[in-house]
Design a protein that fits this description.
Elements (H helix, E strand, L loop, with lengths): L2 H10 L2 E2 L2 E2 L4 H14 L10 H14 L3 H7 E4 L2 E4 L1 H11 L2 E10 L5 E10 L6 E6 H6 L13 H4 L1 H17 L1 H4 L3 E2 H4 L16 H9 L13 H15 L16 H16 L2
Parallel strand pairs: 4-8
Antiparallel strand pairs: 1-2, 3-4, 5-6, 6-7
Helix pairs in contact: 2-3, 3-4, 5-8, 11-13
């Protein structure tokens, strides 16, 4: 699609009180490209056109529009999350919220050490209440400054973060049908992304038999494996899942298939013939 045709398509997008209204996936993609080029979404973790597209599409699906989506949806630890204010707006917009009260927990010296959030639904008599305190934050490791990192929002705005944590739990527990599993940014803020650990494949039974027969091993490039290794790895996984009760975590050694055994014998015969 040329730049002129894209510009023409943007001109055809209807504008209402809710803002610019894309009608097709192409419309959303064009808006995502334009928004990404503006660099406005980088602080929200929207560092690619694809991420902008997903955030904008989620905003449209939630009924708040493309631009509200890209402004209020961020990417934290690889997950799309919404700001706490947008979560409250969605709940209020649903018409199911009767009342919400957010109260600070204040010590005798006037210091705020926590927040309690209580919400009532119109269709349920029982209120939903959650409390989050500074002790909870410390226990979760949210107040620690990690090596090489600058102090974050929990050090600059502790009261606001306590309020948002209590609100996040209350809204997610009480209005799951409205938020549809969406997580809230302030709830994810401070969490450490899980470390991905690579595991080297273990030696298979076929490899051990080949070594005993003196058959040279075929080198395998990183990220790939031959059919024998793949089939043996799959068999090993199945056996580990059904480990015997007498030896927890242990699994019986997989039995070679007829095809694997034929390959071993053939390679051994070829090797001996070349000696």
């Amino acid at each position: 699609m040329t730049d002129s045709s894209r510009t023409e398509l943007v001109k055809r997008m209807p504008v209402s009180k809710a803002g610019l209204m894309p009608r097709t996936i192409d419309d959303v993609w064009i808006l995502a490209e334009r928004y990404y080029k503006s660099t406005l979404g980088l602080k929200n973790g929207l560092d690619s056109v694809e991420k902008v597209f997903v955030a904008g599409a989620m905003g449209i699906e939630l009924g708040v529009g493309f631009f509200q989506g890209v402004q209020n949806i961020a990417v934290i630890n690889g997950k799309a999350v919404v700001w706490g204010d947008l979560a409250l707006a969605l709940v209020q917009q649903s018409g199911k919220l009767e009342e919400i009260v957010e109260e600070p927990i204040v010590q005798s010296d006037g210091q705020v050490v926590g927040f309690t959030c209580t919400a009532c639904r119109k269709d349920k008599p029982e209120p939903i209440t959650h409390t989050f305190t500074i002790k909870d934050a410390d226990r979760a490791g949210l107040l620690k400054v990690r090596p090489g990192k600058e102090p974050g929002v929990w050090h600059h705005y502790p009261q606001r973060m306590l309020q948002m944590r209590a609100r996040a739990w209350t809204l997610r527990d009480g209005f799951a049908d409205v938020l549809k599993g969406l997580q809230i940014r302030e709830e994810m803020e401070g969490m450490v992304e899980a470390e991905v650990v690579s595991v080297e494949p273990s030696e298979t039974r076929t490899d051990r038999i080949k070594a005993a027969l003196g058959v040279p091993q075929t080198p395998v490039e990183d990220g790939s494996a031959n059919n024998d290794t793949n089939s043996e790895a799959e068999d090993t996984t199945v056996m580990e899942d059904s480990s015997s009760p007498g030896t927890p975590g242990a699994a019986e050694e997989p039995v070679l298939s007829d095809d694997d055994m034929a390959d071993v014998v053939r390679e051994a015969a070829e090797h001996q013939g070349n000696l």
